[in-house]
Amino acid sequence: MRLQGVGRRYGPRGRWVLRDVGLDVPPGALLRIEGANGCGKSTLLRLVAGADAPSRGRITGRPRRVAYVPDRFPPALPLTALGYLTRLGRIHGLGRRGAAAAADAWLARFAAEEHAGTPLRELSKGSCQKVAVAQAFLAGPELLVLDEAWTGLDGQARRVLDEAVAERVAAGARVVVVDHAPARPAGAGARVYRVEDGRLCDAPAAGRETLVRAVGPPGAVPPDGLPGAPRWRRDGGGYALTVPAEHSDELLRALLGAQPPWHIEALETRP
Q1: Of 37, 116, 41, 35, nearest to 79 (Cα)?
Q2: pTM as predicted
């Protein structure tokens, strides 16, 4: 699969979100896309998945079986978890029994089988994310595109997702991911690219940090003892906390689990 001179803008006079992007995605490749919030990472993943079309350039060689997990999953669909996965399995080309069997198997693998009959709108955010991720693996995709798919999953589910990604890569599938934590997917070597000023370039291999922009309760400052000992400074109405990227998950959990919790406005992993 190849992207050649790909650009994307919204409207005939809109700014170019992406420009002159060239990228090869061979079988068995694991590619990780990094960059600041709003730089165009999600736009690039939509183009790779075929959910959007380029304004300029062309994309060739996209496999037939494509699975995509967007950064926002629509939980308001009038379906149960099992009903949704079964329908997606049919869309991916599975027969009725095969789709139902695959749906059951992936719900069980993500420890979500107890929610099979639960309407999507009643699921917790974490359980809903398990369903969103499970649908991507139903039919053994040849191209798997994951946009922040690990976010919202518990530790065990993240490990299952790591394993499932590694299995698809070993089977020769192409996998393209965006995630704020540079260690994900764990245990699988990835080629890393960064989107800057609308262009795609190779990213430095090590020494990454995560910048978290967060707003706490009125008058609150970042507490002592936060994971990774983040540096912090005032940033508008909140704070910007910088931590070694390998501690980003623990920092987020600490802020979100505080009483009262902090509000996370933005994340950025950078060299």
Answers
A1: 116
A2: 0.78
